[in-house]
Amino acid sequence: MTAAPLLDVKDLEQRYALPRESLFRPPGQVRALNGVSVQVAAGKSLGVVGESGSGKSTFARLVMALERPTSGQVALLGRDLNRISADELRRARRDFQMVFQDPYGSLDPRQTVARIVAEPLTVLEDADRATFRARVAAVLRQVGLRDADMEKYPHEFSGGQRQRIAIARALITQPKLIVADEPVSALDVSVQAQVLNLMQDLQEQFGLSYILISHDLAVVDYLCDEVAVMYLGRIVEQGRPEDLFEHCAHPYTRALLDAVPRARAGGGRRRRGGQAIASQSAATTGCPYVARCPLADQHCREALPELRKVGEGHLAACHKAEAVMALPQAAMEG
Amino acid sequence: MGEQRVMPLIEVENLGVRLNTSRGPAQAVRGVSFALKRGETLGLVGESGCGKSVTAMSLMGLLPDSAVVSGSIKLDGNELARLPDADYCRLRGNRISMIFQEPMTALNPMHTIGHQVAEPLRRHKKHSAAQARKEAIALLDRVGLPDPARRVDAYPHQFSGGQRQRITIAMALACEPDLLIADEPTTALDVTIQGQILDLIADLVEERGMSMILISHDLGVIAENVQRMMVMYGGTVVESGPTDEVFRRMGHPYTQGLFRARPKLGARKGTRLKTISGTVPELADLAAGCTFSDRCPLVIDQCRAALPPMVDVGPGHVVRCIRTDVSMAENVGALSA
Questions:
Q1: Residue A3: pLDDT band by 50, 70, 90 thresholds?
Q2: Which of B202, B244, B276 lies closest to A266 in CB terms?
Q3: A221 and B160 in contact by Cβ < 8 A?
Q4: Which of A30, A48, B289, B304 is the most exposed place for a label (fewest CB within 10 A)?
């Protein structure tokens, strides 16, 4: 990473209070994020992967400044989004926009495409109708829709086209960062490829950065320069996709890779070990992955592994990272 | 398995389903035929609107009243198509049962899980409440729900997504059905949980000698979990055969396109995904000839004239395409690349 990063996240923590269970004890907490630090350079993409409950969506909401973190900072272009006034934040939102998972739920069915796409702009700028319409038309063409689509309603479009509308809405303010939470997981395979190609084209064209939240490792591999693997609110491994997927250094990344079914002849059943689901509320002293880890020993149960360098631009939070990297790696094709 | 020349458990012949959609009548399924013996597994692959779920629903007798079913569905030689609802109720959940995609909507939030797992036992096997409850606990234990005796009285919202799917599996298995239909059973779940659930289903299918129809849009899930597969597009089966055979030599341009369009691990940034141009057609306005003709890179005039016949391309492997000579020759290099 050179120069000042576009996005700088430091020691981000987020806790949610659970309902009080006893008068005499403090209410429990969900530790959704436990100290996440990450940087994204302009024009680069970060992929965030993990299972449900790993904190990846909380991370997205905090980067979008939709919630205030318990502690830590989110700085975009050098400004801490949680320290600026509401008015400044509103204007700053021009630079970061979001694309949601479900293109059926994220577009208002009662508004025309023109209104949906123009909305982020109308909040930010005062201009006449004709200017807005020209901008909408331009951005619709960029995502591969037609001018004539402006007067239509969301139900007239297929899932892939709706996701294009959602991307157009994010693009219209000419943002520097787009946070996409599972942007293609609700789409059919053949349409998924079209939307992913579009996202890649737009990145090349406008020098956008993406934060791509996904549970699909292949999608992240395809679109991102860097990948962070999250587990129970922590980044457990981070690095370039080729390092991560070919020489993974954390047993959790390996478990994720092993779990991907391979589309090829002679696949047959590959057995995977049973895995317990760890609690988000308990604070543990040792490694959070210890209950599921096949390599865990006493040291892992006692000391929390710090995120440390295991290769060029490759970080892992595991005491036994070297041992994991030395294991034969999962086959990659399919 | 050990039997010789037995009657297939389920035999579907020339199944057609006509549905009323907002855009007029649509032939959602046409000319679907397959047979499944006891203990065999079949995968259905395709995108939304290809007719795979409608096929499953017609086996379950769960189509809307307005649907017109043609052709025949035989279970152990008995005709199921157009069977009166009352008779179907005796089969459903008893001899044929289904696991749905969304475990949260498949479970009733107002009833305890124990009640829901016990329901088919009480209804079909006429178990007493106490007996059914005992059985339900045993079933929940078998599907790997932790501490079932204590949690049998809990409600669906108190469980995670993976646990809920285990509960719906316990419900589907309660009466030891002959045929299990799993419609995208793991689509709503994480990859690691997906593996566990698929392992569980595979174990149970083997242990109880059930037949299974697994519906998925994920070619990986299909490759690892079924013996035979059918690829559906626009309401017809475009390719079918033993799973290994199909993955070794994909014959239909659609199957090939679907395979290439998947983002693959190890495909680095900067490589482009090969898309299938166009979108999945509306069932109400399907082309007269080959349903894939509008999106097919190999289309010729003849394709648009009539629905192509099934062409034999290998042992038990058939493809509904008149251009397999070209598609299968071109594909050799493309798939290994």
A1: low
A2: B244
A3: no
A4: B304
